[in-house]
Amino acid sequence: MASHRLPLWLKLAFTLWIAIWAPSYFIKLGWQNYLWVCDLASFLILVALWCENRLLMSAQLLAVFVVGVFWVLDVGSALLFGVHPIGGTEYMFNAEMPLYFRLLSLFHLFLPLVTVYGVWRLGYDRRGLWLQTALTWIVLPLSLALTDAERNINWVQGPFGQPQEALGPLLYLLGLMLVWPIVLYLPTHGVIMMARYLSSRRPR
User: Fold this and answer.
1) What is the DSSP letter of 162?
2) Quick one: 21 exposed, middle or buried, by C-beta within 10 A (0-12, 13-18, 19+)?
3) Phi/psi of residue 44, each to 5°?
4) Which of these, 69, 84, 85, 110, lies nearest to 93 by C-alpha position?
C-alpha cells in the first residue's frame, strides 16, 4: 500500500475550505477574482495536496509566501496606524462589505502555512520557481485582457492597487512580468536553497 506523506485530515479540511470559499467569492466577486495569483493558488494547492505533488506544492509556496507576508503587513499597519503602506487590503476595513466575507480573506494567513508544511513533508523542488514564473506569465496577460480595469487584478493596471499612466499598458505589463518573479518568488526560493545548502554542509 502506498505511503501518504500528507495527512488525510489536512486534505479534507482544505477541500472543505475550498467548498466554502470558492462559491462565496464567485457569488460576491465573480470569476475574475480567481485570476488573482493567490486565489488561483488556492485551487492549485488543493491539487498538490491530494496528488502529493512536490513540484506543484513548491511552486505554490513561492506564489503565496511573500504575498501573504505583504498582506499581513498591510492589514496590520492599517489596524495599528490607519495606514496601508502596500495597498490592496482596503476592503478588509470596508464596513459595507459583510464581515463573514472579509473573514474569508484570512486565507492569506494560512495558505503560506499549508504550503510550508507541504514542502516540509514532500521536499522542495527547485523547478517550482520556473513553473510559478511560467504560470504568472500566463496569468498576468490574461488579467489585463479579460478583467475589468477598475479591479486592477494582479496590479496589471498599476502598482500598489493604483492605476499608472507613466508607461503604456503593454510596456508596463512586460515590466510587471519581470518584476513579479524577482520580488515575490526569488527571495523565498533563495532562502530555501540557502537553507538546503547549509543543511548539506552540516556534519552528520
Assistant:
1) S
2) middle
3) -70, -35
4) 84
Q: What is the DSSP letter of 2?
A: P
Measure the CA–CA gap between 59 and 56, rounded to whole angstroms: 5
For residues 73 and 86, the answer to whether their CB atoms sit within 8 Å is: yes
- Per-residue burial over 160-177, b if 16 or more Cβ lie within 10 Å, else e, is eeeeeeeeeeeebbeebb
DSSP state at residue 6: S
Whole-structure pTM value = 0.91
Q: Which of 78-87, 144-153, 171-180 has the lowest mean pLDDT?
A: 78-87
User: What are the φ and ψ backbone dihedral angles of 21, each rounded to 5 degrees?
Assistant: -70, -50
Q: Residues 184, 129: contact at Cβ < 8 Å?
A: no
Q: What is the pLDDT of residues 55-64, one digit of tens each?
A: 999 999 999 9
Check if the beta carbon of residue 33 is closer than 8 Å to that of residue 104: no
